[in-house]
Amino acid sequence: MEKNDIKWSELGFSYIKTDKRYISYWKDGKWDDGQLVEDNKISISEGSTCLHYGQECFEGLKAYSTKDGGIQLFRPDENAKRMQKSCEKVLMPEVPVEKFIDACMQVVKANEAYVPPYGTGATFYLRPFVIGVGDNIGVRPAPEYIFGVFGMPVGPYFKGGMTPVNFVTTDVDRAAPYGTGKNKVGGNYAASLQSHLEAVKRGFADCIYLDPLTHTKIDEVGAANFFGVTKDNKFITPESTSILPSITKFSLLHVAKEYLNMEVMEGDVSINKLDKFAEAGACGTAAVITPIGGIEHNGKMHVFHSETEVGPVTKKLYETLYGIQMGDVEAPKGWIYKVK
Ligand SMILES: *Cc1c(COP(=O)(O)O)cnc(C)c1O
Q1: Co-location of 172 and 150 in the same domain
Q2: Which one of 29, 126, 198, 285 has the lowest number of neighbouring Cβ atoms within 10 Å?
Q3: Helix H or strand E encompassing 109
Q4: Is 160 domain-assigned?
Q5: Is 184 a catalytic residue?
Q6: Quick one: signal sequence residues (predicted)?
Q7: Residue 336 domain-assigned (yes or no)
């Protein structure tokens, strides 16, 4: 298929309307077969629970072009399972794993002209979602649901190489200690918009959320997970009831242990003991890894490796995982799903 006339390397992370999207309806206890449609607008009842009560969830994953002209998805089964947990949490019907993966594959194939070629640094981002719809007014689960998947090309996160950015801690909580923080549900993100804006206004990339119970430990870095590399080369990432379980994070835990022979652990990361880390980063599907230059907490700036240069371990972790996603580094069994 002819690729669209898009300047792949200049793309950012913005909405582009591609040709086809997938949509499936849940009614009377079951999902229909789903289909690809051209219209990017959804018509729903004004009483839909997704509009009033946040009964919705979403996912984010990418399709990558490989050197040999193939296209592949990275661990879509993990996104499918995480979305099932989100659905369960807000009382929506689960989408079967096979249906989820099939929908993603269909959307990538139908929009192949928009999938950035290998070597451009750009990728094809997929956004699956489930929303509660149908006539309703009280606080209760919706009578009907929509499962949709759409996608678009997104640019290389780092234009001209990985550069560290700085973050600042916030007093705001994005989620409650035993609330919905570990689920990718809309309310968490509405709750984060204001503190994100405050951080950006002050010149930071985003804010750092501390654990909502004690405000002494790092929970999340904006909408990404945190990891640190200790001075004795251990890979550490926080454990908490309010962190979104990042698939990139779990993949990095594996890469650090199996590919880089590092000791790895999930545990508390005290905001007052950042000294033990040589390097730190934020991780998620969008950028894979964003190196953290420094963190400002209580008016004091703590710099890790450097505010301008990415650290050697962070760089190696990034290159290995991104290499796996693009098919240049051999992947652990079951991580890659071939679209073509
Ligand atoms: C999606 C998300 C992440 C990253 O998860 P990945 O599966 O690695 O993309 C981290 N934190 C939050 C709050 C998220 O919404």
Answers
A1: no
A2: 29
A3: helix 97-110
A4: no
A5: yes
A6: none
A7: no
